[in-house]
Design brief:
By secondary structure, the chain is mainly α. About 65% of the residues lie in helices and about 0% in strands. The protein has helices at about 10-15, 20-25, 30, 35, 45-50, 55-60, 65-70, 75-85, 90-100, 105-120, 135-145, 155-170, 175-190. The longest helix is centred in the last third of the chain and has 20 residues, at about 155-170. The radius of gyration is 18 Å and the shape is elongated.
Length: about 190
């Protein structure tokens, strides 16, 4: 359940990280990205502020590469929503967790985060197990004896490649992306 203090600006990404009924995931992506799609109205001061929505240039930039999509706050949120609708959000969650791991400087925190990532995404029967080969998993287990920021680098690369070659092209050709482009272009005409 969401606390009342959570802003619409952060809802898209946090919503995509929370489990939902599978039937509702497909039919509710439009509701989740509603703050991207809404036109200016008197009902929401947040939506009136143009800086909270992606511009047509932003949305078009997302089609150039997965890197450009993931480097944009709303691009990443929209991609996460799309992956959830495709039942493969564990890939972006794992990739994001690995990115977070790289910024940790304390060895104790790094070890705790590395073990957390392993338990959530790597171990057999993990709640959000990502699809990795046996050798990659074994290398991770060995690296966790003395974890570092690069402990999951190989696995992160494999998951990124999977997203880049499979999920990302489907996202770019999806109804969700078309709606975002249309909404952004409507905004510039207003």
């Amino acid at each position: 359940m969401r606390e009342s203090g959570v802003s619409s600006r952060s809802m898209a990404f946090t919503d995509c990280m929370k489990p939902n009924d599978e039937k509702e995931i497909k039919k509710n992506w439009r509701r989740r990205i509603g703050f991207f799609l809404k036109t200016n109205s008197s009902t929401s001061k947040l939506i009136k502020n143009r800086s909270y929505r992606p511009t047509p240039d932003d949305v078009n930039l997302w089609a150039q590469s997965l890197d450009k999509l993931l480097s944009h706050q709303y691009g990443k949120a929209a991609f996460c929503i799309f992956l959830k609708s495709e039942f493969c959000e564990e890939n972006i969650e794992f990739w994001t967790a690995c990115e977070d791991l790289k910024s940790i400087t304390s060895h104790a925190e790094l070890a705790a985060k590395a073990n957390s990532i392993y338990e959530e995404f790597i171990r057999n029967e993990a709640p959000k197990e990502v699809n990795l080969d046996f050798h990659t998993k074994i290398n991770i287990v060995h690296s966790l004896r003395d974890p570092s920021a690069s402990s999951f680098l190989s696995a992160q690369s494999k998951v990124y490649s999977l997203m880049e070659n499979d999920s990302y092209p489907r996202f770019i050709h999806s109804d969700l992306y078309r709606e975002l482009r249309l909404a952004a272009s409507r905004e510039t005409r207003c």
